[in-house]
Amino acid sequence: MTVQRDMEIIKRDLFIDGDWVSANDYQSLYSPYSEEEIGSIPLANEEETNRAIASAYKARTIMAKMPIYQRAAILEQLALLLEERLEEAARIIALEAAKPLKTAREEVRRTIQTYKFAAEEAKQLRGETIPLDAAPGGVNRIGYTVREPIGVIGAITPFNFPMNLVAHKVGPAIASGNSIVLKPASQTPLSSYYIAELFKEAGLPDGCLNVITGGGRTVGDQLVKDDRISKITFTGSPAVGIGIRNKAGLKRVTLELGSNAALIIDDGIEIDQIIDRCVTGAFSFQGQVCISLQRVYVHENLYETFVTNLAEATAKLTIGDPLDEATDVSALISKGDVERSLAWINEAKSQGAQVVLGGESQDNVLLPTILTNVDNQMKVSCQEVFAPIVIVNSFSNINEAIARVNDSRYGLQAGVYTNNIQTALFAADELHVGGVIINDIPTFRVDNMPYGGVKESGVGREGIKYAVEEMTELKLVVFNKN
Fold first, then answer.
1. Which of 22, 52, 140, 213 could disulfide-link to 481, CB 3.0 to 4.6 Å?
2. Can you give the pTM of this predicted structure?
3. Cβ distance 435 to 461 under 8 Å?
4. Are 98 and 331 in contact (CB under 8 A)?
């Protein structure tokens, strides 16, 4: 289907201290699908980055002193504005990320929920009273704790959820009374600049949110090293995340890094009832999801049926333009990712893996791919593919399946389908991951749950309540009544 694209190239400037600020340098932004130019984006230099940090540092006192009801009202108004402009926001995501339009709409809906959760969480900031007289020296003393904002949050976000993962950093920062400097991914900055516009309209004071684009070594490193930044919250690759942690010094750091999420399917499961979920988990947004279903371990009694049914359901997916309402799978974020994915598939084939479906590309679209007989040491298994590739292997007992899931440098989320409560409880105990999802795919996430991993999947937790805790300091106050 041919999609009408009539649109002007979107030119953006840096968003600093509530104003649109021209940069010295700009670069063109291209659609990952059509390769047409869709935007012109500023590249902040050191001086411009410093200006954004200075703006946020100055505004930190405004945010800290803002009454909680006002912070909540701004977040609620942002959610309302985004709800009114859902289609416009979804189209921006589809254009810059090649995310199929119906998937982009779902991201906007989740983003709205995330800001609503942030508004509610702002109202829940509280400490506790401490029974100091539990110790002999504490008699006639009153103790309590309060939570205070830490200052300026440096947020570095990825391309794959350019609105919702921004919301998971900006939302809790505002809820907890912090100011922000946001560096979105270079391929998907239009969503962040759009949100900045809406926040200004929603009444967020100037300087409390600053959005700057540019190279990681320029903007990113400056955010990480600048002493005026109190915390870095980053979503991206393990290599970059480890570098951030090494450079951050005493800053607080939340890192949401890679994953090769796995699913165990135990004997006795009705395969027909879970196939659609597995297809969604593996191929939604071309597999470019941190908890995309990458590895499936199926009990040997169900293995052949599962592989056949998965291939049949996957073959029905519609490949095409992200702006086409019918499209399920579109282009990967870059040509380089297509080439890398094909190289990993070919490497697996050369080492004995079988391609059940896909394994090829059409222009910038990697066709949904199912591989079997894949060894845990092959790149398509042990590294994060971030592409529409899923591997399926069989197991004979649950201990074997759990061992194969745990045989990974990552540990974000894992799923287990089982009818046996003992197996479910055992798996929940033994799987070394940040989240175990029973009777669903590991790709399950709602925006108020704690989200984060172990090992090279990162440190810290997102999910508004948990992010707020990491963006505030706990202060103790003691009154001596003696």
1. 140
2. 0.96
3. no
4. yes
**Letter for the amino acid at 340?**
R
Smallest CA-to-CA distance from 460 within 251, 231, 256 is with 256
d(CA 231, CA 298): 42
Residue of 96, 121, 256, 384 marked catalytic: 256
Residue 380 φ/ψ, nearest 5 degrees = -65, -15
Torsion of CA 158, 161, 164, 168, to 10 degrees: -30
Rounded to whole angstroms, the Cα distance separating 45 from 108 reads 31
Low-confidence residues of the chain: pLDDT under 70 = 1-7
Q: Tell me the pairing of strands 252-256 and 458-459.
A: antiparallel
Of the chain, the end-to-end C-alpha distance in Å amounts to 80
Q: Are 293 and 261 in contact (CB under 8 A)?
A: yes
- Cβ neighbour number for residue 34 with a 10 Å cutoff: 18
pLDDT of residue 8: 81
How remote is the C-alpha of 370 from its chain's centroid? Answer: 24
Question: What local confidence, expressed as pLDDT, does residue 7 receive?
Answer: 63
CA atoms of 418 and 406, how far apart (whole Å): 18
Contacts of 310 (CB under 8 A, 6+ apart): 275, 278, 279, 296, 370, 390, 392
The helix/strand/coil state of 345 is helix
Q: What is the pLDDT of residue 2?
A: 45
CB-facing half-sphere around the CA of 98: CA atoms within 13 A: 26
Per-residue pLDDT reduced to its tens digit, 216-267:
989 999 999 999 999 999 999 999 999 999 999 999 999 999 999 999 999 9
Phi, psi of 146 (to 5 degrees): -135, 155
Q: Which of these is catalytic: 107, 121, 290, 456?
A: 290
164 and 256 in contact (C-beta within 8 Å)? no
CB atoms within 10 A of CB 335: 14
How long is the chain? 482
What is the C-alpha to C-alpha distance for residues 94 and 8, in angstroms, rounded to an integer?
Answer: 15
Name residue 48's amino acid: E
Specify the pairing of strand 365-366 against strand 361-362.
antiparallel
Pairs from 2-9 (Cβ < 8 Å, separation ≥ 24): 3/321, 3/323, 3/324, 5/34, 5/36, 5/323, 7/38, 7/95, 9/37, 9/38, 9/39, 9/40
Contact by Cβ (8 Å): 26, 41: yes
Q: Are 333 and 288 in contact (CB under 8 A)?
A: yes
Q: Which 3 state secondary structure label does DSSP give 180?
A: strand
Residues above pLDDT 90, as percent of the chain: 98
- Catalytic (active site) residue 256: yes
